[in-house]
Design goal:
The chain is α/β, with parallel strands linked by helices and 375 residues long. The chain is built from 11 helices and 12 strands. 31% of the residues lie in helices and 18% in strands.
Length: 375
């Protein structure tokens, strides 16, 4: 309906893709608000020469947080509510923030502030918000920024390449009498890794190996939220190395690359793809690794959530496929039983999710470092 600021140029192909990627394509009886993200290949020639500060930013930012030249990220806030005045009986609208930066936490938090207002007040709201955002300082790695928007100050630290891997973000101490008290984000980009990986905790080693090898992997999920979080979590397991293959946190059958991925005449590309439409079970069953996630149901009090099992690919033929990792891949590493026991204990003791995530992240960092050191 509307692109703001008006002078932002998108090609027709990009507009169409953004439209399709902004709505859940699975049958979602879910009413209310949903947030998810996607990544989109830019089309057409270089329309805007990359900003001059790209070079400096990219030199100082961690590899995984560099500005993308060939892709856009889209951060989506989708609302679906019953509305008898609409022809289809529902109000369905998405506000999408498009950026070349992978700051998923910052941008999704920003959308939580803006979107509800936008659905009410429409364009004037975007105009006011963009005027505030225009005043924001550029993201300089290593700096803590105070970003005022809609009567709130978001405070966030931009990670730097010289940060020690695995250290927690520096405690933010420059709260110079900010009024109102700032909304402090613990990280611009880190997901709740423990929550994302709950159904696959016992397979973390295998997934790390598949990511390291750049193997083609499909994540089939019940919603774009689950699919995009899982893909982003998977591509972050090699940190501080950058995941160098392509990845699509959410992908639909309308995508211009759809034919490329579903053809059986050539091997699937090195890509991690998140999908929700059951149609993909048929069209992607020749892919070597398929992670099928169900609705997340916690088992009993203090139990590990139901873990998906590793199954033979041949079992994928049925359309009512059960959750599981469908692959014939043989891992090089053994499961890390002590890690799993610690995380289990954490669930029983109701340990906060961020502590569980930190344990998981440190474990993955040690895996990556022990792989890199001999090289």
């Amino acid at each position: 309906q509307l692109v703001y600021p008006h002078d932002f140029r998108l090609t027709e192909k990009e507009k169409t893709s953004i439209c399709y990627l902004s709505f859940p394509d699975s049958y979602s009886g879910g009413l209310g608000d949903t947030q998810f993200s996607f990544r989109l290949r830019r089309s057409g020639g270089p329309r805007d020469s990359p900003a001059r500060d790209d070079g400096r930013y990219n030199r100082e930012a961690p590899l995984a947080l560099q500005r993308e030249a060939a892709h856009y990220y889209g951060y989506v806030y989708f609302r679906q509510v019953k509305d008898s005045s609409m022809r289809r009986g529902y109000f369905q609208k998405s506000l999408v923030l498009v950026s070349r930066l992978p700051y998923v936490n910052l941008f999704q938090s920003l959308l939580q502030l803006i979107a509800p207002e936008y659905f009410d007040k429409l364009e004037p709201c975007l105009e006011a918000v963009c005027n505030e955002i225009d005043q924001w300082p550029p993201p300089v790695p290593g700096q803590t920024l105070n970003l005022p928007v809609m009567g709130v100050v978001i405070q966030v630290r931009i990670p730097s390449r010289v940060d020690k891997p695995g250290s927690s973000p520096v405690k933010q101490f420059n709260q110079e009498n900010l009024l109102p008290a700032p909304l402090v984000l613990p990280s611009v980009h880190e997901l709740d890794l423990f929550r994302c990986f709950q159904p696959v905790l016992i397979h973390v080693q295998m997934l790390w190996e598949l990511m390291l090898l750049g193997e083609p992997l499909v994540v089939m999920a019940p919603s774009p939220t689950v699919s995009s979080e899982m893909v982003l979590a998977l591509t972050s397991v090699l940190a501080p190395l950058r995941f160098c293959c392509d990845f699509r946190p959410y992908f639909t059958i309308h995508d211009s690359e759809f034919k490329e991925y579903t053809t059986r005449t050539q091997a699937p590309p090195s890509i991690v793809v998140g999908v929700t439409n059951p149609f993909f079970i048929k069209t992607l069953q020749h892919w070597p690794h398929i992670l099928r996630l169900g609705e997340l149901r916690m088992a009993g009090e203090g139990d590990l959530p139901k873990q998906v099992k590793v199954k033979k690919l041949a079992k994928l033929k049925t359309l009512d496929t059960k959750p599981g990792i469908y692959t014939s891949y043989k891992t090089f590493l053994h499961k890390d039983k002590t890690l799993i026991k610690r995380l289990l204990k954490g669930i029983q003791r109701k340990r906060p999710s961020e502590v569980q995530s930190a344990l998981l992240r440190r474990h993955l960092l040690e895996l990556t470092q022990s792989f890199i050191i001999p090289l």
